[in-house]
Each structure stands twice: as C-alpha cells, then as structure tokens.
Amino acid sequence: MDTAEQLEIQALARDFAEGELRPRAAEWDEARSIDDDVFAKLAELGFLGMLVPESDGGLGFDLSTYLLVLEELARGDAAVTLSVAIHCGPVTDLVLAHGSDEQKARWLPRLASGEVVGAFALSEPEAGSDVAALSTTAERGPDGWALRGTKRWVTNGSRAGLVVVFARTAPDAIGAFLVEPGSAGYRVGGRERTLGLRGSETVAVELDGLVVGDEGLLGDPGDGLKYALQALDVGRVGIGAQAVGIARAAFEHATTYALERRQFGRALAEFGATRSKLAEMHRRIAGARALTHEAGRALQRFREGAGPRTGPEGVTALAAAAKLEASESATWVADEAVQIFGGYGYMRDYPVEKLLRDAKGTEIYEGTNEIMRHVISREVLHAARPAGE
Known about the structure:
By secondary structure, the protein is α+β, with helices and mostly antiparallel strands. The protein has helices spanning 4-31, 36-45, 63-76, 78-98, 101-113, 224-260, 272-303, 315-341, 352-362, 369-384; strands at residues 118-121, 137-141, 144-155, 162-170, 173-179, 186-191, 202-212, 217-218, 262-263, 266-267.
C-alpha cells in the first residue's frame, strides 16, 4: 500500500516527467543526446540521491519509493531513466554496501547532489551475459592497480565523474575499482548507435594502464564478481520499474487514440478487437508492476536482514522475474499500441514507435531475458534439491 508521502513523491516525479521529459523525448531521440539541464533539475529534486542516506545528503528512500519514481520518469522518457537508474542503483548501492568510511564520505554526498554522475563498467566485447569471462586486468604495482582493457555499453560513460570498473585481479579473482574518468589512461571510445534509448549516452571505454590507488579499491580485491551480481539484482528491479513506465506510456497513448480515431463511422474503441487488446495490455502492466514491487520489497527485506537472497522467494530470483516479466510485457504492450495506431504507429511523427524501440532494450541490458530464465530456474532447482546434493 502506497503511503501518503509516497503518493506525493510519485506525483512530483509524474509532474516532472510530464513537464520536462515527455515534451523533449522525441527531440533527444532524434539528436541522440540528453540536455545537461535535465540532470541539474533531477539533482535539484533530489532524484539523483534517492538511495543515499539522509546523513550523506540524500533522500534515503526505501526501494518501493525509488521504484515509484523510476516508473514515473520512464513514462516521460526511458533514456533519462536509464541514466538515473544506473547512477542511483548499481553505482550508489555498491559504494553504500562495500565502500570504506572514507570512500562513502568522499563519494556519497557528491553522487546525491549530482556533482558527480555514476557509471557502471562491467560488460566487455567478449563478456556480456557471461560476466565471469571478463578480460580487463588490474595489475598490482608500487603505486596501486594498473587497469587495462576495454569496456562496452557503459551508460553515462562520458558524462560520469565516477565509474565502477570491474577487472581481473588474479586468474581466478575479480575486483571492483572506483575510477575517476579524468585520470590518465581513461579514454572514451565510440558512442554506440542503438535501436532505442537513443538519447542515452552509451559508450565504449578504453583503459590503458590507468592507475588506481588503494583508496580506489572497493572492498576485497577478490570479491568483485559477488559485488557485481549483487548490483545486478538492484539494477534488474530498477529495469522492471522502467519497463512498467514505458508500457504505461504506450497504453495511455493507445487508449487516447482508440477513443479519437474513427473508422467505418465508429471510434476504434468500439470494436471488440481493440477492446480485447486494451484489456490485455492493462492486465500485463498490472501484473508486471505488482511483481516489480514485490521484488523491491524482497530487496528491502534482505537489506534489513529479514529476507533471503537465494531461493525462489529470494532477491535474485524475484529481481530476475520482475525484469523478465516487465520487459516482455513492455515490448508486447508497445507493439500492440503500434498496431492500434495502424499506419500512423509506424511513423516517427507519432510516439508509440519510439516506445517499442525503447522497450526492446529492457529485454537485453543488465542480463538478457534468456539469462533471466536461467537465473530463475537455477534458484528454483537449487532449493528443490535434497540436502547434500
């Protein structure tokens, strides 16, 4: 049940999305760029510090409130929401969970204020879904760790002031590092040309002997893979909320158009085929939203020491299920919205084709939906096996 305070925050996010994001979304999609002033406005509202504790300058939201905001922002523009979700989710969460007192004091207030935007550099050309196969190395030397390798699909990669980079510290170990992009050896490569989420700043990053001192090592140098998987749980729940927001936008456009557009002397909304589509769209959105918020509550319980990470009811399985259900529902809903618009839906002058392109991305990043099915089945089967097997 949403509290009165949550509803006020949700309304604030909705108004911001309606006034600042939706009117400019098509322009950003065409230009493949998001105006800097949007991030300043998000910071002013506190939406870049949603998960940062109040003692560190943030809003200290619980996961349910955070997901409500992401959903409303995505209803306005999914590309902006992706940047916010990466910044607030995996990056902030890793510093909070594994940062030293000095690292938290240095980075959390700056992340919360928007002085620094965060990026997450995990994937590589040959290590996408197979995270454990990454080849970027971190070699220990007298001045710290020298990082070498290439990262791909780094959202906020050229805008960021802090990048969490994962690198192999030993043949059988991975570490996580807090990297400042202005450092020597950090080079932003080509901007990715994507099907959807075109306004999002997704780039390749080259690391050529970039040296990170011990103050930049996050937690234990051998626990980076564990940290990455934990961060992905947070990221996947966020994608669930983002996908629900995309689906809602497509559904709203479709219902409005169905009432306005007339064919054969009748509004489209009067035809049984259209009504059936709208009913199914609503059902899928409602189910995806419920599952996403259940995953958020499971993550909140785990953080408070009252819930499991593994097993069918654990965070990992529910986060994967939420991402899977919400992303596939968003793609289906957006596709049906295009169909309701007919020929106009296929035109770039109308909003639903962009929503379909954006929705497809949610099925791929933070682990493809094939990987989500693997994660869910692994958690279910592990719990079902007899003890000792």
